[in-house]
Amino acid sequence: MSKKSENILLIMWVVSLTATIGSLFFSEVRGYEPCQLCWIQRIFMYPLVLIIGIAFVQKNAKIAVTTAIFSIIGAAISMYHYGLQKVSFLSENAPACERVSCTGEYINIFGFITIPFLALTAFVLITVTSFMLLKASKEEK
After folding, report:
1. Is 0.90 surpassed by the pTM of this model?
2. CA distance linking residue 33 with residue 24, whole number of Å
3. Sign (positive/negative) of CA torsion 62, 66, 69, 74?
4. Which end of the chain is more exposed for a tag (fewer CB within 10 A), N or C?
5. Measured between alpha carbons, how far is 52 from 60 in angstroms, rounded to an integer?
6. What is the pLDDT of residues 25-65, one digit of tens each?
7. Which of 47, 40, 81 has its CA nearest to residue 67?
């Protein structure tokens, strides 16, 4: 594995770890109860910390397909969740969530940065770096 591929894996791991720590900070430290869609996004982000971490230690670039799939699905859910918060048509017709509304915004920085936006950013970064890793591993062959 080239140094470039190792660096890409490290970036992917740092992004997934930061997103995981961030979500735990919001729920455990700040006391923000996650909505149903937040839980689903966590299902796709949390395993990436372990998967990418193990791949980094093993120097396994083949994990890029798996990380791309997880992050694309997670990004789609985050995008929908963000849409529920910011697009009036979607928020007016939002399905009833459980105890916490999926349209609620615990944070709203600069009028557009919400928790689903942060998750979407992390998933997009992991998706992009997954494709970069695929390309780099093909170039090495």
Report:
1. yes
2. 10
3. negative
4. C
5. 9
6. 999 999 999 988 999 999 999 999 999 999 999 999 999 99
7. 47
